[in-house]
User: Which sequence fits this backbone?
């Protein structure tokens, strides 16, 4: 079976090699510094991280010690894709911290200001979290970005 997979990969590679396709994406600005209608090159660096149309206000003040420790733990790991983002919201009459899921079918987390896990509002196999705060998306307000992985 392995030999068959290897043979298929080799055949695919050799077929693609004969095409002599070259893909380049320039990322530097044009020499003039200005972009005209005839310029075909992009003027900024490529990125694999999504760029959101709405960039919330960042809040770097009053981070509780437990949150600083959580941020340090994320920075001690390899960079996640998507990157970790932590938001502050008003939810059910209190301030809460939302920590984005590291990947795929994993849960995002909502903590109270003391660092106690309240719920997992999304993620998991169903994408609907653990069911303990099904109204989170609809009822969260006053979004503030507290931290995002800078790497």
Assistant:
């Amino acid at each position: 079976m392995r030999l068959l997979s290897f043979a298929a990969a080799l055949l695919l590679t050799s077929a693609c090699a004969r095409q002599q396709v070259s893909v380049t994406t320039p990322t530097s600005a044009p020499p003039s510094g200005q972009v005209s209608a005839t310029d075909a090159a992009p003027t900024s660096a490529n990125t694999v991280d999504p760029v959101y149309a709405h960039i919330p206000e960042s809040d770097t003040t009053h981070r509780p010690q437990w949150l600083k420790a959580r941020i340090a733990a994320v920075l001690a790991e390899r960079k996640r894709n998507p990157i970790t983002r932590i938001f502050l919201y008003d939810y059910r009459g209190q301030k809460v911290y939302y920590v984005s899921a590291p990947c795929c079918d994993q849960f995002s987390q909502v903590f109270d200001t003391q660092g106690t896990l309240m719920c997992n509002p999304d993620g998991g196999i169903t994408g609907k979290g653990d069911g303990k705060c099904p109204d989170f998306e609809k009822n969260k307000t006053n979004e503030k970005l507290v931290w995002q992985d800078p790497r």
Remarks:
- The chain has three helices and five strands.
